[in-house]
Inverse folding.
């Protein structure tokens, strides 16, 4: 004969099942009331969003469906992808160069690289883009030639700087400044002992950079660059102000005609989202891969100096 | 090791090194003959590492004479001054000085074999096949045959340090510097590294070793130097310095470590 309180406990612990051995019993964690409340809020918000998205007719999902694979939109998307790849490539190459100049033994070189980075990171990229678009107002003629000779080629800057070149130049130069900082951070993440070991062997600066510093800073540089890539993909929408026919521009062209502004902006957003989601999968793989190698490297005994030495050689 | 041109020797006179205001090495005199084994002992912060780093050219000295392998390190003496050498000339001097660090500093992006090959191939431009063969020989000589394909993180501390020694030896240095090579190791791994160093000592390598291993110093060293506060306090045979110290500071230090 069991008492009521016992039967309640029995019910809760499900003791009608055979009791497990104490060493193999799972540990059940508490879920606080707060967690249930948070889930409830989450569900309510989701419900609200879904409801308005489907009941508010101004979204015009039929229009979205109609234009999401329209040829103009797809051409804009291709342009966006091309711009992203171009600007990231130029930006990364120039950024690497800047980062190397930034750690040059020659002070004036360091100063010039630093000034470049300060300028391009310190002014809005939108302003820079418009600036490049209007560069012809500043330098209407550009003479490319060999100094102190008559051999030269006069170039009409107005024709050279089309909207697309202004976009590529502007985004690349801006990206280079950010990329340079990423490279610099990566270089700085390399353990000082590595540089000393290389110096001790008599390695030249170039060899040290190529064989020791760059490979070892990849775990820091690659994931950050991946993030920049995703960022650049969205940043290209800025060049629509120059009239470059990328994704945002192409939907703008359509809604300027049809006045279906909201559904066409949704079309653009759908593509931006799809592409960033597609990109973030390889990005997460890259991050996982490099965080593992980094953990491996820094778990080695090499990274664990004794306490006394850490104090003795604090630098 | 040839005795000609002071190959394998280290000489310092009035060597001074400071970091900002702080004088870390003060009027150090040092004479290491070719093939001599010198152990530097002293409390933490006494300047042992800094002295070795100066001798390896990792730190520039403020004042004094520092001659390694018979050449002024990093500079050329002129009647009125020491003139800095070209980067290439400095690098050439460095290839003849080997340094083994407390924290190994193996290149983690290279296998053990590639680490050992790195000096000959990347610095001297030696042919790869030959350097690979040489690297395997060196790895065998430090008891690591078959570990050539392992990355540093796959090796124990003692193994890593032996790879580091092999990496230095691959450059055929005339002087080897060791900065507390066993301090970062688990106690049971210390012996294997000391054994490699003993072997090297018996083969006539000039060695300058900062260490806390008093037993090793007693057994292997020709000369023991006791440093404290950036000064050479006492210098002599291991029997004298370790067995019969004259300076009170040496006595006090030996009491704490023995
Ligand atoms: N790069 C540096 N900058 C400033 N002080 C340093 C630097 N390197 C070493 N020191 C100082 O020099 C002194 C001697 O250090 P170190 O040569 O590492 O001694 P040891 O190797 O005998 O423990 C210490 O007080 C340390 O703080
Ligand atoms: Mg030290």
């Amino acid at each position: 004969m069991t008492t009521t309180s016992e039967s309640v406990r029995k019910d809760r612990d499900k003791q009608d099942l055979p009791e497990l051995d104490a060493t193999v019993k799972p540990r059940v964690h508490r879920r606080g009331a707060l967690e249930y409340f948070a889930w409830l809020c989450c569900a309510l918000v989701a419900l609200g969003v879904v409801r308005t998205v489907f009941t508010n007719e101004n979204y015009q999902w039929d229009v979205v469906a109609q234009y999401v694979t329209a040829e103009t939109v797809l051409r804009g998307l291709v342009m966006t992808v091309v711009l992203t790849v171009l600007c990231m490539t130029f930006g990364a190459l120039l950024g690497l160069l800047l980062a190397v100049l930034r750690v040059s033994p020659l002070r004036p070189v360091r100063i010039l690289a630093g000034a470049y980075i300060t300028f391009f990171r310190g002014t809005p990229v939108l302003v820079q883009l418009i600036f490049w678009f209007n560069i012809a107002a500043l330098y209407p003629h550009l003479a490319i030639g060999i100094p102190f000779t008559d051999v030269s080629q006069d170039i009409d800057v107005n024709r050279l700087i089309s909207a697309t070149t202004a976009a590529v130049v502007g985004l690349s130069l801006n990206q280079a400044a950010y990329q340079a900082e990423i490279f610099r951070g990566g270089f700085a993440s390399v353990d000082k002992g590595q540089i000393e070991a290389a110096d001790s062997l008599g390695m030249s600066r170039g060899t040290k950079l190529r064989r020791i510093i760059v490979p070892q800073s990849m775990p820091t540089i690659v994931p950050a660059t991946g993030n920049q890539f995703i960022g650049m993909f969205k940043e290209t929408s800025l060049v629509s102000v120059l009239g470059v026919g990328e994704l945002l521009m192409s939907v703008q062209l359509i809604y300027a005609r049809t006045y279906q502004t909201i559904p066409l902006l949704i079309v653009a957003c759908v593509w931006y989202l799809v592409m960033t989601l597609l990109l973030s999968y390889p990005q997460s793989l890259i991050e996982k891969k490099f965080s593992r190698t980094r953990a491996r490297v820094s778990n080695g005994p090499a990274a664990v100096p004794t306490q006394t030495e850490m104090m003795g050689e604090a630098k | 090791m040839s005795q000609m041109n002071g190959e394998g020797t280290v000489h310092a006179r009035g060597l001074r090194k400071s970091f900002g205001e702080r004088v870390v090495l003060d009027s150090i005199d040092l004479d290491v003959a070719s093939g001599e084994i010198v152990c530097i002992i002293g409390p933490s912060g006494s300047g042992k590492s800094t002295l070795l780093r100066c001798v390896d050219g990792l730190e520039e000295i403020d004042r004094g004479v520092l001659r390694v392998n018979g050449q002024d390190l990093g500079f050329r003496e002129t009647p009125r001054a020491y003139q800095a050498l070209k980067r290439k000339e400095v690098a050439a001097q460095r290839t003849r000085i080997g340094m083994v660090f407390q924290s190994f500093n193996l290149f983690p992006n290279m296998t053990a074999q590639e680490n050992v090959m790195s000096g000959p191939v990347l610095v001297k431009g030696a042919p790869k096949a030959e350097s690979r063969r040489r690297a395997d020989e060196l790895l065998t000589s430090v008891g690591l045959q078959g570990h050539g394909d392992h990355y540093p993180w796959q090796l124990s501390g003692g193994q890593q340090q032996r790879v580091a020694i092999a990496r230095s030896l691959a450059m055929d240095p005339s002087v080897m510097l060791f900065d507390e090579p066993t301090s970062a190791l688990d106690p049971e791994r210390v012996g294997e590294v000391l054994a490699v160093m003993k072997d090297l000592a018996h083969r006539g390598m000039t060695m300058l070793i900062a260490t806390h291993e008093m037993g090793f110093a007693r057994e292997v060293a020709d000369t023991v130097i006791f440093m404290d506060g950036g000064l050479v306090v006492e210098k002599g045979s291991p029997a004298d310095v370790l067995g019969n110290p004259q300076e009170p500071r040496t006595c006090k230090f030996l009491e704490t470590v023995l």
Observations:
- The pocket of magnesium ion (ligand 2) is lined by residues A 309, 312; B 48-49, 179-180 (CB under 6 Å).
- The mean pLDDT of chain A is 85.
- The two ends of chain A are 75 Å apart (CA to CA).
- The longest strand of chain A covers residues 141-145.
